[in-house]
Design goal:
The chain is mostly beta strands. The chain has one domain.
Length: 67
Protein backbone atom coordinates (compact mmCIF):
# COMPACT_ATOMS: atom_id res chain seq x y z
CA UNK A 1 0.00 0.00 0.00
CA UNK A 2 1.50 3.36 -1.02
CA UNK A 3 2.36 5.94 1.62
CA UNK A 4 0.17 9.04 1.84
CA UNK A 5 2.94 11.53 1.12
CA UNK A 6 2.18 15.14 0.23
CA UNK A 7 4.29 18.12 -0.77
CA UNK A 8 5.71 19.77 2.36
CA UNK A 9 5.93 16.58 4.45
CA UNK A 10 9.19 15.97 6.33
CA UNK A 11 10.44 12.38 6.42
CA UNK A 12 13.31 10.59 8.11
CA UNK A 13 15.19 8.26 5.77
CA UNK A 14 16.95 5.04 6.79
CA UNK A 15 20.33 6.12 5.44
CA UNK A 16 21.94 9.43 6.32
CA UNK A 17 23.03 11.89 3.66
CA UNK A 18 26.80 12.54 3.41
CA UNK A 19 26.20 15.93 5.10
CA UNK A 20 25.02 14.01 8.20
CA UNK A 21 21.29 14.77 8.04
CA UNK A 22 18.62 12.08 7.67
CA UNK A 23 15.65 14.47 7.39
CA UNK A 24 14.19 15.41 4.03
CA UNK A 25 11.31 17.60 2.86
CA UNK A 26 9.12 16.40 -0.01
CA UNK A 27 8.86 18.96 -2.82
CA UNK A 28 7.39 16.85 -5.63
CA UNK A 29 4.99 13.89 -5.66
CA UNK A 30 4.19 11.63 -8.59
CA UNK A 31 5.75 8.53 -10.13
CA UNK A 32 9.03 10.00 -8.87
CA UNK A 33 9.35 11.68 -5.48
CA UNK A 34 11.44 14.84 -5.15
CA UNK A 35 13.06 15.39 -1.74
CA UNK A 36 15.26 18.18 -0.38
CA UNK A 37 17.86 17.57 2.34
CA UNK A 38 17.20 19.76 5.37
CA UNK A 39 20.92 19.77 6.23
CA UNK A 40 22.47 21.04 3.00
CA UNK A 41 19.53 21.82 0.64
CA UNK A 42 20.55 19.15 -1.92
CA UNK A 43 17.64 18.01 -4.09
CA UNK A 44 17.21 14.36 -5.10
CA UNK A 45 14.63 12.58 -7.26
CA UNK A 46 13.80 8.97 -6.38
CA UNK A 47 11.41 6.48 -7.96
CA UNK A 48 8.38 6.08 -5.67
CA UNK A 49 9.19 2.45 -4.88
CA UNK A 50 12.77 3.23 -3.79
CA UNK A 51 11.57 6.23 -1.77
CA UNK A 52 8.94 4.18 0.08
CA UNK A 53 11.50 1.50 0.94
CA UNK A 54 13.92 4.13 2.26
CA UNK A 55 11.49 6.04 4.50
CA UNK A 56 11.93 5.28 8.19
CA UNK A 57 9.11 7.50 9.47
CA UNK A 58 7.01 10.56 8.76
CA UNK A 59 8.19 13.30 11.12
CA UNK A 60 5.71 16.07 10.48
CA UNK A 61 3.25 17.35 7.95
CA UNK A 62 3.52 21.07 7.27
CA UNK A 63 0.12 21.19 5.53
CA UNK A 64 -1.87 20.47 8.67
CA UNK A 65 -5.50 21.61 8.78
CA UNK A 66 -6.08 24.76 10.80
CA UNK A 67 -2.63 26.34 10.26
Amino acid sequence: MPLDIQVGDVVQMRKTHPCGSDRWQVYRVGADIGIRCLGCDRRVMLPRRKFERGVKRLIREQNEPGT
